[in-house]
Amino acid sequence: MTVYHIFGYVGAAALLLTILRYFLARPSSLLVCYLQNFVGALFIFSGFVKAVDPLGTSYKMHDYFTAFAAEKFFENARYLALYGNFWDWVGSFSTPMAIFMIAAELFFGFMLLIGWKPKFTVAIIWALTVFFTFLTGYTYLSGYSLTNAFMLMSAAVMFIWVLIGFQPSDSKKGKWTLLSFALLLMLIAFFMSHASTHPFDEGKMKVTDCGCFGDFIKLKPWETFWKDVILDAMILLLLLNTKHIRPLLEGKRSAVAALAGVVSLGLCLYCVYWSEPIIDFRPYKIGNDVRELRKVKQEPKVEMLFIYKNKATGAEKEFTVSDLSTLNYSEWDYKDRKDKVLDPGIPAKITNLYIENDEGAQMADSILNNPGYSLMVVAYNLNKTHEAAFVKLNAIASGCDKAGIDFFAVTVNDGHIDEFRHRLQTAYPFYHADETPLKTIIRSNPGLVLLKDGVVINKWHYRGLPDFESLNQQYFSQP
Length: 479
Fold this sequence. Notes:
alpha/beta, 3 domains, three-stranded antiparallel beta sheet, globular, 17 helices, 54% helix, Glutaredoxin, five-stranded mixed beta sheet
């Protein structure tokens, strides 16, 4: 599925809702009614695919905060340290921020559909979308080697654009919009001047997956940026025409709003603190064969190009390997080489799963090729893990040891594993892996994963760990 499919499905749903509204409420503007339904439906969809896995969004927000901390906005070492510490502090709140943002996206998307407090609802949706545009713009445009001045100007324009939504009258909104467009044109001119001397380099992009639709679909940075720009235009039209938004459910909107708020927040909290994602879009979901997903489906086709500079004219030209056999080297100086991707192929869906033992030997293949059952404890960070869960994990490990079932843990090698194992009396091996794949495998710290012949059979959040007897009855004792 692509962003075009999402826009197509949402557009079709918005059209059906507009037709229904026409017969129920006779909207004064069909265009505004359609935009209301389109934006509302898109916010609900985008919010829901993230609400089933809020920790994924939390990790993505933390990546952004880390990237911001690395930006050198201050040359003075003292202020640079304070700047980095600020983003580290903000990053510590990435999970509650993700929960609040996703719940707000769901809530206000639904409120827009029913027309609850139109001016306030559209203003919040506008603020959220401008914020998303800033993040996706940072992701994409950083490929042009953004300057500090451009970043600060963008943040200022973003702040002024957000203020448009909270102006009390339409006339003031119009004046602020004109001012914002003037500043935006200046920003675009500044960027075009910069881009003319700094060609786009995909390798320089920061946080290359924005997580706009969670793990449901991964969009290219330029796709998600232009998606947000189009959405900005739609919401701006709504913002300037809120008087045409006709509310539904007269007399019941407040009760419906309260219920929607509780459900939105409750869903996010449940999928963070009490359960694995209720719908799993990750490559490690139950039933997936991890071995197969680590294989490249189709190798990419790449052509090597050699760049030479003409000694007489100074012009640069690209040559293929076959061209070099006839090249007159007395007329050309070698300058550089690059790879031209002719066909990207079909890459593996899992590319970063590397598990090592204490000696540095790779364990992933032997773990995944085990034809029998094995239980893997995943704890991406032992300093943040819920230690009380290891009491039950140790009891499961004891039962597995007697039954001949492999039981092991995988965590980040931070130098404190031995102390942790001794303190919690964990009599099973601990292997090492990078934090990123561990966070992807399971959204619980710790969590338990049941594998068999490379297939994910089941996964458990630390709050819902089974005991060995139930595991033995359901899995191990079966023929």
